[in-house]
Amino acid sequence: MYVKILAGFVGILLFIFVGLATNYYVSSNISKTVETSNDDAMVDKKASKENSSANEKRESTNHNNDKEIDKNNEKKDDKSPNKLGKNLYKEKMDGGVEIIYGVVSDVMIAPVCAQELDAVRGKYRTVHPQGKYVAVTVIVANNQNDAITVSEGSYQLVDDKGREYAASSKALSTWSLGKTDGNLGVLTQINPGNSERFIFFYDVPSDIDIKKLQMKARGGMIGDSVIIPLNNYPEFSILD
User: Do the bridges between strand 126-127 and strand 120-121 make them parallel or antiparallel, or are there none, so unpaired?
Assistant: First the structure.
């Protein structure tokens, strides 16, 4: 009888022991699983933070690069010609001077200086206008593949009423007498890729506003014409 009781008691203890061991094993595995999950979460969080930081750096670098590109484009655009209309442009030259010029038949024409005169004085004589003289210094650049001929007959002034004024041969010949250099605008050739300065004189009404005058010019002795506002930069004048 005692043997049966003892055997039953041992069985109970064995059952309890197995149960405790199983709970410990399960609990230990759960704890390890939780710790592993926490470690994985920390690793993922760290990796995510590093990726986010790297993305921010890349975005910052790209933004700075975009700003640098914009600055470079702005610098390029500073001196790029600004189209004002058909065959008409404005461009900033060295020194900050803005010149309005026309391009026709691959010839650039820039009336860079307009000056009022009460007379034109040469080495041997002086001539007076019917109204007043306007002397216009013009830069002509030949971008064609052939030489062009510049003549005073290709350059007129136009006022705000549409009236056209031809260049004065008398004033030009008076001014040019005795001069051995410069280009006088009388059948002068310009080879491809070259440019020259010329001066033309116009006899206009004495009460006309010089600011309302424009130049109508052709790229050669024949061909299309372009109408260009007069610039007024005395530093470009070739008058004495």
Answer: antiparallel
β-strand 214-218 against 155-158: which pairing, if any? antiparallel
pLDDT of res. 222: 79
Answer whether 127's CB lies under 8 Å from 174's CB: yes
DSSP 142-155: E-SSS-EEE-GGGE
- 100 and 5, same structural domain? no
DSSP helix/strand/coil, 207: coil
Going by C-beta distance under 8 Å and a sequence separation of 6 or more, which residues neighbour residue 158?
Answer: 164, 165, 213, 214, 215, 216, 227
* 237: three-class secondary structure by DSSP: coil
User: Side-chain half-sphere of 237: how many Cα atoms within 13 Å?
Assistant: 16
- CA proximity to 215, closest of 121, 100, 61, 68: 100
Average pLDDT along the chain, 240 residues, taken 10 residues at a time? 44 46 46 51 57 61 58 54 88 87 95 96 92 96 94 94 95 80 69 94 96 93 89 87
What's the structural domain count of the chain? 2
- What is the per-residue pLDDT for 187? 75
Domain that holds residue 7: 1-78
The domain boundary, picked from 62, 78, 94, lies at 78
Tokens standing for 92? 């900033």
